[in-house]
Amino acid sequence: MWITYVMTWFLYITIIFNSVCQAGEVTQGHNEVVVLEGQEADLPCVTTPTQGNAKFPRSRYTSTHAHTPDHHHQRPQLILWYRDGIRSTIYSYDGRDPGRERHWSERRSLGGALELTLPPTPHSRPQLAFLRISRVHQSDEGLYRCRVDFYRAPSRNTNTKLVIVAPPSTPRVEVWASGRWLEAAPGTPAATVEVGTRLRLRCSTTAGRPAPTLTWWRGGEQLLEEKTEVTKEKVMEEEEEEEVVVRSTLHVSVRPEDAHTPVVCQASNTHLTPPLRTPLHLLVLSSPSWVRVVGADKAMSAGVSYTVECRSVGARPPPVLSWSVGDHQHIHASSTTNAAGETVSRLVYKPEAAHAGSHITCTARPPDHARHALSSQPTPTMWVKSDSVPLNIMYKPEVQLDAQRVRASPGASNTTTTKLPPPPPFSPSLHNNNNNNNNNNNNLLPAQVHTSKVAVVKKRNDGTKTRGDGGDKVKAGKVDDDVSLMEGEGAVLQCHVRANPPAYHVSWSRDGSPLSPGVGGGLVVGNMSVVLPTLARKDAATYTCTAHNAEGSSRSNPLHLHVIHGAECMRGTVQVLGVPRHHALNVTCQVTAYPLPTAFSWALKSSRGLLQVPEEMINFEGVVSWISYTPRAAVDYGELLCWAHTALGRQREPCVARLVAADKPDPPERCAVSRATPHTLTVLCTAAHDGGLPQTFLMTVSLSGKEVTNSTSVTSEITAYDLEPDTRYRLTLWSANTHGNSRRTTLHGSTAPSNTSTSSSMNGHASNTTKGPLAMLWPSLVAVVVVVTVLGVVMGVVLGVLTQRISVPHRFSQETEDEEEPQAPSHSRVNMGRLGESHR
């Protein structure tokens, strides 16, 4: 009875419970899914309907066909996803119409895209659907609920908590040095220390969710940090948001094994990723026992290569050996370390003269110390060791030449630079003539010239002409190797020599020619200097000095000495130029001056007075000026005057070119054979008027009306060569200049027989000289003949001059009368029209 009663009651309770469950919902306990930020998250949803549905007898699920039910009744009809904080569904699935299932999602509700994956079949195990969120973000974290509705089964809910984990940043290890925290560079030693040094380290990391844990490790052993703090601060100054920063501080003593074992800071906040580690490498030092330079204590010649060595013993790790010579630091050379721990560096050293008196030094430093600006402390002084050896360098002399000005003594003559030139016949700086100045000159100048432009021509740097008065100041002084000094001043040329061994001799040269020691030529030549007490123009030259020692000889820089002086004519005498009428003549004026002329002025001095040459007719380049002039009448002949203008003023005395009327020359006079040989005939004449131009003498030799040979000479003595012996020839002579040829003069002459040594005749007839009774008197006879001949020549020349003086003026006067125009032009037309006529 009791057992029957109990079983009946239990069945009753079960039926009631099943009925309630079929009418309501079944809720699963919540799950937890942990995902890294940025990865995919799969949220599970149970899609198995609850058992005990009255519409489906239990025997249907427990029979042998339990896994082949009606798919339509066991598959989910609706799947709805919810998230805390969002009222509407974030995803839904509608499977009520088989074959036409529908998916829908609110894409803007979460950070990544949503995708629902259903079980392949209703009887698959486990019966789970998954909602996949791609690229999860921190904002996706929260509680998710999945509701599944079936055809005839209660709805089923699945709760899942999504946790988003963000890994921390790579730990940043810093070392306290020089009063501040210095960050260690990855992969290189961050601190150069010795054994026993106590270091203060700090490790920090940012971001990370949840907050990471920092731990210190050394060789697999965890070290206990002294302090860990979590703060919020700005990681970068330009950022506005603050981040959580976790810091851990540690003090550690350096051990010998730390040279190979780094101290590591580790940050971790999840098992999904391995911990992040940052090692701190230390350079543990062991100073060298000694450093020594070998092979540099001998005398060396500049320019010759030598090999010197630096040896270091006892350093750990092997040191870096660097060289320095004087001010040249950190000269690196290859080095090697043997098994005994000795490090050797070999330097191929080529001495220079600038290294004389310096030391060559080898320094041992910790390896890569120069690149470790983040060292926790300076390299210990006891670690750095060096050795230094003084250098004894032999080199050729180094020579520098300069000049110093010496003022002339009060008694020295300096008239060339202090005396002012006389006033010019006309002022180049004035456009109009002043009637109160120099009335005599005014009477000589035509009215047109008084108002003409200034006849001073300057040239700019671009070659164009300008007008001015040459008022530039003199610039004297040293510019590079050019020295300009005034004439009359004194100068000392000093030769500075630096040599090892000292120079035993210094030689001097001027313009490439050697200067002998002592006093001469206005200068005093010593060993180390040249003194010029009073500078003259001839002292302007290029000077050099050469020093000699056992290593060789060296020449100084060339010093160009310029003597500042006024302009003077290059030609010391008056230049006489013959020019025919109506012929253009280029007249050149060349001066010597320093500084170079800045302008030139020209004038014509004739019977009409002093006429100024227009500036457009004047050309010049450097110290040479030229004009083109064409005379038309007798009054156009005279003297062309040229003045150069420099920074010192106008030239004192002008250069003079005297123009004389030119014509064809007169024929040579009193021509006679002065010497006859078997193969030559020499004719001596008296030169007649040359026509005002240089003349040349010419002669042709004819035989039987046929020209045999011809000869030319610049003197009045002409010789014909390659003639036949004992033959009578016809000789034709004349003179010529650039204006034309003279009339011709004819005479006859015979060559000497082939057995006669010489023959002379003054009248064209040969006289033979042979051996005979009068052989002893022959020298006396020859002397008498020579004296008579000389007297005849002198008388001929005198008669010719007298004849020229009488006939030339008459001839020129006649020509002038023939060529003179009926009416003479005005002064300005005559003068100005003839200057530069060739240009028209």
Automatic annotation (TrEMBL):
Membrane spanning residue stretches: 776-802
Compositional bias segments (type: Low complexity): 428-442, 750-761
One Pfam family, short name: Ig_3
Protein topology in the membrane: Single-pass membrane protein
One Gene Ontology CC term in the entry: membrane
Domain Ig-like: 24-163, 171-281, 288-375, 472-560
Region (Disordered): 407-442, 740-767, 812-840
Keyword Signal part of the UniProt annotation: yes
Cell compartment(s), UniProt: Membrane
UniProt keyword Transmembrane, yes or no: yes
Keywords (A to Z) from UniProt: Disulfide bond, Membrane, Signal, Transmembrane, Transmembrane helix
Region forming the signal peptide: 1-23
Name of the protein: Ig-like domain-containing protein
Origin species: Cherax quadricarinatus (Australian red claw crayfish)
